[in-house]
Amino acid sequence: MYAVVESGGKQYKVEEGTSLLVDRLDAKEGDKVALRPVLFRDGDVIVGAKDLAKVKVEAKVAGHLRGPKVKVFKYKAKKGYRKRAGHRSELTKLEVTSLKGAKGGAAKKADAEKAPAKAAKEEA
Predict the structure, then answer these.
(1) How far is residue 105 CA from its own chain's centroid?
(2) pLDDT tens track of the chain, all 124 residues?
């Protein structure tokens, strides 16, 4: 069972117990955060908006940190143009605590489809 969630315009594949780094969220360390699912898979794939509304993905904020420093240097040869800049991303580390799908959705449908097939095999 896994889900693809969206945070900060980026998508991440998560399972229960997964930790991931996302762009800085406005939450304190230890808070629970609900992530927006884009896709859910538990037997069948769920992508419809109605079905995804039933899917709950919760994560705990494990901490806030900063990403690696990225150095940017521009220059033009023989022109005396040199420009130096840097960037460091503000990140939040999340740990996925629970992944709950639509109750009875995909699993019950799969069992219902298998039941007539099993009955036919037993008769033969």
Answers:
(1) 21
(2) 999 999 999 999 999 999 999 999 999 999 999 999 999 998 888 888 888 898 999 999 999 999 999 999 999 999 999 999 999 999 999 999 999 886 644 444 445 555 555 555 566 5
Please report, for the chain, how many H helices and E strands are present, in that order.
2, 9
Cα separation, 20 vs 56, whole angstroms? 17
Owner of token pair 């945070």: 7
How long, in residues, is the chain? 124
Strands (E), the chain: 2-7, 10-14, 19-23, 32-42, 44-46, 56-66, 70-76, 81-87, 90-100
Q: Is 104 helix (H, G, I), strand (E, B) or coil?
A: coil
Task: Identify the CA nearest to 35 among candidates 17, 51, 22.
Answer: 22
Q: What are phi and psi of 41, to 5 degrees?
A: -135, 120
pLDDT for res 48: 86
SS3 at position 119: helix
